[in-house]
Amino acid sequence: MAVEETKKDTKLKVTVNHGEKLGKIERSSKSYGDVDHEATKEQMRSAYKHITGMQEPIGEGCERVTTSDITEIV
After folding, report:
1. Cβ burial 42-72 (10 Å sphere, 16+ → b, else e)
2. Full residue range of the structural domain in which residue 14 is found
3. Residues 11-51: pLDDT tens digits?
């Protein structure tokens, strides 16, 4: 049984820190779609730095989120 994986979508997920409110750190995240599947980690980090450099909340991290179809080849 052979299995094939086909990448469908790649996103950059950016997490930001809004500071402490009522004793808890408030965080939020936003995903940016249509990222090239072949984007390097350096390119992803550069995009993250540009995005967080244009906004007020403190950038806390970024993730590459990739979805794929996994199918059995018959």
Report:
1. eebeebbeebbeeeeeeeeebeeeeeeeeee
2. 2-73
3. 999 999 999 999 999 999 999 999 999 999 999 999 999 99
